Amino acid sequence: MYSVFITRSLPDPIVEKIEQVAKVSMWEEEEVPVPQERLEKELEQADGILCLLTETIEEKLLLGADRLKIISNMAVGYNNIDVAAASKKGIMVTNTPGVLTETTADLTFALLMATARRIVESSTYLKNGKWQTWSPFQLTGQDVYGTTLGIIGMGRIGEAVARRAVGFGMNILYNNRSRNMEAEKQLGVIYTDFETLLRQSDFVCVLTPYTPETRNLIDREQLSWMKKTATLINTSRGGVVNEDALYEALVGHKIWAAGLDVFEEEPVPLNHPLLSLPQVVALPHIGSASIQTRMRMAELAAANLIDGLQGKKPKHLVNPAPSNIE
Ligand code: DGY
User: Fold this and answer.
1) 316 in active site
2) Has residue 274 been placed in a domain?
């Protein structure tokens, strides 16, 4: 029987499924990540692990992982794993694309609406007893209907956000590594260069994967191209946006607002300057956090893991399959 380590408490049906083929050891906590030492120890004896984006799996952690066949990440992003180091050891790495697309697009759009119409700020205003009267320009925000949305990264989630934006009568620009002709045809999205997108958009959604090439993709210069009335939404990874530059742009009123579901350091420290700004809506990385979607992600991560253990090519392999895999 195989040995599997699950790095966070998952629902019984998921664990039972894996137990049909493997002996399972699990970090039972829900709110505390597994300590690195425990992870390192488990990796020495595991044939497979099911992990989360909170686990940083670097080359040195894999040194003793001589039995490990598969790292199944319960996320679509896998920047937490050194894929090259895993590949060198013949370890498969998998992710969970597709099943979280619509849920993450919903949250992206929720952030867009919340920042445009100052939803969180307005609710806090009311709850803090500040609402004295209705007033013509009290808590006024920006229109969403009929404005221009710029999507950076026109993959599955980008397309799903664009579908929502069509319903709001938005003009949609996008930038991507390559043109998405299908999205252009189906959704009427328009490909533009990066600078034009930033200069013309009223809302910019960052949906590109986090790679060495996209680190600080949105930096001081890029923020300076944006309209004063524009909003930046990031539901990808914190490192794609330079947070110091974003803070400066917001404080200097160079852009209107920001909606952030992700941060360079997570959990974001409470004294982070961005959290002090009323025009920032900050969320604790909940893009895919619906009950149904998290179940689907766990099921898919389990299916990938089981395939890999059994020597089958998992459906969502992100690195080349080792030569002994069908
Ligand atoms: C992912 O799957 O990469 C998301 O960030 C998790 O919500």
Assistant:
1) no
2) yes
205 and 276 part of one domain? yes
Model pTM above 0.95: yes
118 plus 13 within the same structural domain: no
Same domain as 271, residue 179: yes
- Catalytically annotated residue among 237, 243, 299, 316: 237
- Same domain? For 298 and 252 the reply is no
Q: Is 288 in the pocket of ligand 1 (CB under 6 A)?
A: yes
Coil vs helix vs strand at 49: strand
| Interatomic CA distance for residues 217 and 245, integer angstroms | 11
Residue 8 designated active-site = no
Between the CA of 179 and the centroid of ligand 1 the distance, in Å, is 24
Q: Which domain holds residue 63?
A: 2-99+291-309
72-104 pLDDT tens trace: 999 999 999 999 999 999 999 999 999 999 999
How are beta strands 48-51 and 2-6 bridged, if at all? parallel
Q: Is 272 a catalytic residue?
A: no
